[in-house]
Amino acid sequence: MVAIGATVLAGSPAGFAQQPEPDPGVTVQLNDDTAYELGLVNKYVHGDSNVALARCPGGDGLKAPKSTTFSSPVLRIGKYDYGPLIGVPANVSAEVELKEGTAPGSYPLTVNCNGKPYTATFTVPPRQVSAVPSGAAHAGDGSMAS
């Protein structure tokens, strides 16, 4: 699972955003840091899988209520999983993809938890150049040999 780093609204700690006077324990974020890669929370990662994550109390056992949904003006929300995740403070997740034509910038990710919206802000960085310029040297191809 990939995590994405971004600005959080309402100044809540650890990359989680909450509205004023939130329900205890409600969190929302895009992606989560991994043991080998940090800086992924609330940052969209081009060319990798991205996941919306939230903790929404009130479901069956450790699961979020089935009424819990994500929304964002720049993300397509896919397959939901209503259950706890190991090592991630969330009990609902959904696969997300960036909508075609989305410019780099900051955007909201909202979770509707028990009828109330909670929002985090995530960033979409510029895409990296994916093509090597014509005529550029390639490591190991002998083009730099004299």
The major β-sheet equals: 4 strands, antiparallel
Can you tell me the overall shape? elongated
Number of H- or I-type helical stretches: 0
Counting DSSP E segments of at least 2 residues, the number of strands comes to 7
Q: What is the helix/strand order? A: EEEEEEE
First-to-last CA distance: 45 Å
User: Residue-averaged pLDDT, rounded?
Assistant: 81
Please specify the SSE layout and strand pairing.
Elements: E1 27-30, E2 50-55, E3 69-71, E4 75-81, E5 92-98, E6 105-113, E7 116-124
Antiparallel strand pairs: 1-2, 2-5, 3-6, 4-5, 6-7
What is this entry, summarized?
The chain is 0% helix and 31% strand. The protein has strands spanning 27-30, 50-55, 69-71, 75-81, 92-98, 105-113, 116-124. It has a four-stranded antiparallel β-sheet with strand order 1-2-5-4, with no helix packed on it. The protein has a three-stranded antiparallel β-sheet with strand order 3-6-7, with no helix packed on it.
